[in-house]
Amino acid sequence: PMGLYKGLVLSVCIACAAASVLFGGYMYVDQNTPAGGTVPKDLFDKTNIVWLSLVDPNNLTFPNEFLSVMNNSDVASNLKMVTIGGQTWGANWATIFQSVEVAVASASRLATWKTRYGIDGFDIDMEGLGTTPVDVPAAFIKQLKIAEPTLLVSLCVYGIPIGHDLDNYLVNLMVAEPGFLDWIFVMAYDTPDRTETYVNYYLKPTTSYPIVKPVPPQQIVVGIKGTGAYSTCNPSEYTVIGQFAKEQNLRGIGVWAFGTDGSSFNSSWFRPDCYQGYADLCRALSARSDCSDGV
């Protein structure tokens, strides 16, 4: 997902614990900016996943800010995914991907984070990466699973697959080799109609697009707009997108994004109408009756 905003982006997922539906977003900690503010408690108390981002591939260090988030009692039962790369650090994948040997060694090192820090998996975002032999990132992803078979691994992909050969290769490999990736995150961030179109490029591919076989719906999480510097929440659209995700049996929905101004939480990011939209999505996806409408 977009990694341009310097500050803290909150990842929140509201879903029914008994179901596989995910409703999430991203906790973005710019490694050059101290995280500030206090996370409103109920942003986590009905969640089942938190994405911690972004880690620089050129400096595989676990940020202390991630630990502060994970220490929140409401996060303890959540899946905890670490996002590597993004627009901020995407070009730095070249360091890891200089050879298969380096990629495999880096993946083995990262896999130890599961037991060392208590995370559940990695979200791979290669925005900004230049031309790279496809076998190198494929070997990196495979090694994550070899080194730690219980790791979850996901891949961020563009809404329109044309021109993104590496991502498409990895998506096709996921379909051909079950267990290679757990899901893809389709970076749509658009209106309901366009969001449906983007998802269908993967869910119902045609011969004119580079996805060879349909991606199973349970391996698709779709990104929607939150509120903040690079997107605006549109609660009236949330129910429509939520219904689409439910009808298509998608793995879930991811929100980009909530955040801070770099020193304290900016209340405009937590407007009541946005919260109402998130509550509507919670109800649409999980059919639960206790989805909170506000902080």
Task: Write a short abstract of this structure.
By secondary structure, this protein is of the alpha/beta class. It is built from ten helices and nine strands. It is globular, with a radius of gyration of 18 Å.
Indicate the topology.
Elements lengths: L7 E2 L12 E8 L19 E7 L8 H7 L8 E7 H4 L3 H4 L3 H12 L1 H5 L3 E5 L9 H13 L4 E7 L6 H12 L6 E5 L4 H12 L16 E6 L9 H13 L4 E5 L15 H15 L9
Parallel strand pairs: 2-3, 2-9, 3-4, 4-5, 5-6, 6-7, 7-8, 8-9
Antiparallel strand pairs: 1-2
Helix pairs in contact: 4-6, 9-10
Fold and architecture overview:
The chain is α/β, with parallel strands linked by helices and 295 residues long. Helices cover 33% and strands 18% of the residues. It has ten helices and nine strands. The protein has helices at residues 64-70, 86-89, 93-96, 100-111, 113-117, 135-147, 165-176, 192-203, 235-247, 272-286; strands at residues 8-9, 22-29, 49-55, 79-85, 121-125, 152-158, 183-187, 220-225, 252-256. The chain is globular, with a radius of gyration of 18 Å. The model is unreliable at 1-19, 31-38 and 259-269 (pLDDT under 50).
Q: Which characteristics define this entry?
A:
alpha/beta; single chain; 8-stranded parallel β-barrel; globular; 295 residues; disordered N terminus
Low-confidence regions? 1-19, 31-38, 259-269
Compressed to H and E, one letter per element, the order equals EEEHEHHHHEHEHEHEHEH
Compute the CA-based radius of gyration: 18 Å
The amount of helix comes to 25-40%
Cα-to-Cα separation, first versus last residue: 25 Å
Count the DSSP helices: 10
Overall pLDDT: 79
Strand arrangement in the largest pleated sheet: 2-3-4-5-6-7-8-9
Task: Indicate the overall shape.
Answer: globular
How many strand segments? 9
How would you classify the helix and strand content by structural class? Answer: alpha/beta
Major sheet attributes = 8 strands, parallel, barrel
